[in-house]
């Protein structure tokens, strides 16, 4: 499981950081084409997948049948003919037991971690994680209300495949701007705390003293 998890995380990191430029660019182009097709043609994902699979199976079936019929006719007409029309070149694709066990173990570990975290949040044991997840769900809800699922998915994928690479390339400049922004936010917080929160606290203390 460790080898599969390491390989998977390493591959994802390479794709996100554009270390495999052809694969990353291919993912962006394919997802962009799918988004345009779904948005403009009115296709749904289920109908598109069904149509593609139907077309592919029909082509392979007719190819195999026509090759068999032509080879049989050629064998009857010319017993010494060596050339035969090949069947569809389909590879022997299978999943080994080791790969299946690694994937199952990885899914099980992440599922158990998700269930454990959800239980802690539901029981009020992890307040920080509750606010993080609540904020994420709220942002997803707001974004979902502004756009559809396909556009949101493609935009999220585009951000995931571009922002980390840009950050790695311009890390020093981005960190400097973030540091300046944090300092300004801290100054605004201190100013707001002194002007408003401090006055409210002093007003509350005066009220308590008078009472």
From TrEMBL:
GO cellular-component term (any): endoplasmic reticulum membrane
Key word Membrane present: yes
Subcellular location: Endoplasmic reticulum membrane
GO biological process, one term: response to bacterium
Residues that span the membrane, as ranges: 21-38, 44-64
Record key words, sorted: Endoplasmic reticulum, Membrane, Transmembrane, Transmembrane helix
Reticulon domain: residues covered: 12-211
One Pfam family in the UniProt entry: Reticulon
Keyword Manganese: no
Domain of life: Eukaryota
InterPro entries, per database record: Reticulon (IPR003388), Reticulon-like (IPR045064)
Topological relation to the membrane, as annotated: Multi-pass membrane protein
Protein name: Reticulon-like protein
Species this protein is from: Thlaspi arvense (Field penny-cress)
């Amino acid at each position: 499981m460790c080898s599969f998890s390491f390989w998977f995380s390493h591959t994802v990191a390479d794709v996100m950081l554009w270390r495999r430029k052809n694969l990353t660019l291919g993912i962006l182009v394919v997802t962009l084409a799918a988004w345009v097709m779904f948005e403009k043609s009115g296709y749904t994902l289920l109908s598109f997948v069904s149509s593609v699979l139907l077309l592919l199976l029909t082509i392979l079936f007719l190819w195999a049948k026509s090759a068999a019929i032509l080879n049989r006719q050629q064998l009857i007409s010319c017993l010494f003919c060596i050339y035969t029309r090949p069947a569809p070149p389909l590879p022997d694709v299978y999943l080994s037991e080791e790969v299946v066990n690694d994937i199952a173990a990885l899914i099980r570990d992440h599922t158990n971690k998700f269930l454990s975290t959800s239980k802690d949040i539901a029981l009020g044991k992890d307040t920080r994680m509750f606010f993080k997840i609540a904020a994420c769900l709220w942002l997803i809800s707001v974004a979902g209300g502004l756009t559809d699922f396909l556009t949101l998915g493609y935009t999220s994928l585009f951000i995931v495949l571009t922002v980390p690479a840009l950050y790695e390339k311009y890390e020093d400049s981005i960190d400097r701007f973030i540091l300046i922004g944090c300092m300004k936010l801290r100054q605004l917080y201190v100013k707001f705390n002194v002007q408003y929160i401090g006055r409210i606290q002093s007003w509350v203390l005066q009220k308590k003293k008078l009472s």
